[in-house]
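Tutorial handout. Part one gives the primary structure; part two gives the three-dimensional structure as tokens.
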Amino acid sequence: MAASRIVIENCAIATVDANDTEYASGYVVVADNLIESVGAGSAPTGLENVVRRVDGTGHLLTPGLVNTHHHFYQWITRGLATDHNLFNWLVALYPTWARIDESMARAAAQGSLAMMARGGVTTAMDHHYVYPRGSGDLSGAIIGAASETGVRFTLARGSMDRGESDGGLPPDFAVESLDDALAATEATVDRYHDDSFDAMTQIAVAPCSPFSVSTELMRQGAELARRKGVRLHTHGSETVEEEQFCKELFGMGPTDYFESTGWLGSDVWMAHCVHMNDSDIAAFARTGTGVAHCPSSNARLGAGIARVTDMLKAGVPVGLGVDGTASNESGELHTELRNALLVNRLGAHREAALTARQALRLGTHGGAQVLGRAGQIGSIEAGKLADLVLWKLDTLAHSSIADPVVALILGAAAPVTLSLVGGRTVVEDNHLTTVDEDAVARSTRTEARRLARITAAG
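Part two.
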């Protein structure tokens, strides 16, 4: 059967390939779910079975954005504990989060995914680690929401087994036992993980953080992931307090602790990594351990400025993360492109920290590297999956910025004229085509109010 083709032409293109190839005016041909060709000028003539032609005049075409760290459930607890550092923020919010159920998790996932997708995200991930007893099938609800939205998705099946009675921060009824956490994680991998080239759903093993899980859960979690052939994810080196906690409890800093439990490697990525010294960065580079950089959340919680420039120079894979919307209320990744550039210029390297094109690479190819999918997504190249975003740059907001990549990164949030995931339309003219945005908004409001009532009632 002949491939159905979509032709996008007359647009600026930033391919984010190994050579950062760009075209001032070019085309992309999509055949079924793959990129068939990309180049300068007009599309080839004589193409068969063209089902759609898109005139991209005034637009920039980029790879779809890749989000590498998030907590979807937090969508229904936005705007709370706005003046707290990480530990105090967790203490304030865990009693609320410990009361989420399946309906809440689905609504929160729908809200998080819709906001990201309409802002150019074509591959999302969720680090979900709160599984209160009797709360229902939370993982299934989240995966179902991702399927409905139509984006590629990695569920980092998280876990916590260190509750308040063991010196942890979460309430005891919100944590799992070691055996239950491992069994549920393995069952999630067995049921949902797809390792095919065009997979829409993948699973990672993801104990929450050093201060909410036992050393045994870290060790056995790593063994489980490698036995199953899936990736590993957790929080690392987010705050000074975390570093102190690790030294007091384990007699070593976070990176050394991770290495001692099998948690450094090319199949691992960590969220945040704000407080990394030279030897930490060298260890990540040596082992190929990736980083999910979350500049807005790091600023919101006062965690600090991650050494992204030094990580990249050392060869550490780095992508961008929205992080949970209780610490990044905007909930979309375009903000992170801009803030990654701006925040890192406040650090030691100043104006030499990041360029606009490096920021775009973090949000596309860098994210694909971190998720282990750089062979399939993250750049516009023939043979890769057709995950593409067409950004509208000919309005007042960007009218006097000549460089389209600079306009996208430093300008106001650009409308998304078209977003494709595997050649399937997910966003058209800045609106989702797969779900009803208004219905999602109503559902998330309802569930947020219900959660607030349950929490207030104790």
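Part three, for discussion. The CA atoms of residues 85 and 171 lie 19 Å apart. The mean pLDDT is 96.
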